[in-house]
Structure formats: structure tokens, C-alpha cells
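Re: the 247-residue chain
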Amino acid sequence: MIVFPAIDLIGGKVVRLERGDRKKVTVYSDDPLNVAKGFLEQGATWLHVVDLSAAFEEDEYARNANTQAIKKLCKESGLNIDVGGGVRSLERIDEFASFGAKRIALGTVLIKDPEFAERAASEYKELLVADVASKQGFVKINGWRENVNLTSGDVVETLVSLGFKHLVFTDISRDGMQTGIDVSTYEHISRVAGFPVVASGGISSLDDIKALVCAGDVVFEGCIIGRALYEGAFTLKDALVVAESAC
């Protein structure tokens, strides 16, 4: 199982939000590359990077600072970068691909512009990741600020039919809260998708990671861990050991 340590960016700084709320932000570092090197030293091979300034449609300065940070992260030897946040055009996909990103996540645009989603899936294939965030079973978009009257299952089913092969599923109610995970939610989503998913939101202990391992690689391709690492609940090194262990 892949463990993706997370770097969320606002104005070039490493932050975490509570349940995606822009007003509830904690800044952990103003040096994303140094944070990434720390993860690399502990054994990371993948890094999950989110451009929150783009997702929240913030000012040009904040967005440019994030773009430059992402470019540097993609150049760091030994790390595969999975990047997303506010990716809503083919030009942005091309830009991240030119930086060397190994996966590029699309979120809001998948709901807002299904024709674009179909075209992107056809052209970029496994480079792309569908990023679906849900609260109480219903999908939220636009930096998790906007409700849409679509269930997570219906959205996932549609995206798979368009050709998406990778899926990050976020349980918004648990994201950034270190409250633990609901494995059954992900089991449902993986059944709908027909392939293993990446779990995001709420991982707070090594026991949570163990639960993912025990659910099996037919359910989970990987997991994204953020606040628990920054708050010292456990180390990335220990998380990787558990992720590679038998149930």
C-alpha cells in the first residue's frame, strides 16, 4: 500500500485545514521542499501535494508561490509527486506534467464540465486521478465549499465510465481532525469503482493504517496522511512499516 505524506500549500507555505475550512488553518512550514526532504529521508516514495490557493481561487501572488513550490517538489529526486487543487484546464495539466508530476488530480472540473472530464481522461489516461470529496454521502466541490446534489457513489460510477483509473476519496467530516477512519465507506467506494482507492481524511494512528492493510489491496491502493504526521502522532517511517506489513 502506498503511503502519501501530504503537503497542502497556501501562498507557498505548508498548511493543514480542519474539514477543509479556509478559516481554520495551521501553518507548519514556509519551506515545502525542506518538509519534502524530511519525508524522503524517512522512506517516502510518493508525495501528495495540494494547491489550496488555486482551489480557493486566491490572488495571483499566492497561486504563483504555490506553482513555484510545486515545480521544486517535482524536481526533487526520489519522490513521485501526486498534485492537485484547482486544476481546471488542459493547460494546467500540461504545466504540471512538464514539471514532472507523476499523477495529476482533477476535482471540481469533473462535476462542472463532464465533457472536459471525458476529454482529459481520454488524452492523459493514467496520469490523471479523480479526486472526490464527500460529506454524509454527498459530493462537495470548489474547495469543498459548494454542495452538489450528487451522491459519491453516482459520481464515482460516472467517472469510472469516462475512463479514470485512479481515485482519491476524501471523507470531509474527518479530514484534518485525526478522528480515525471509516473503512466501510471506502469499501463501498472501491466496490463502485471496481478498483482500489486512495483513502484521505482522518487517519490518526498506526491502527488506522493497519485497518486499511487488513481491508486488503482490493480496497486500498494507498492512503494520504497529513496532520497526524505534522502533530507527531506517529512518524512516516513507522507508517511505512505498518503499510508494508501483513494483516
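The first strand starts at residue 2 and ends at 10.
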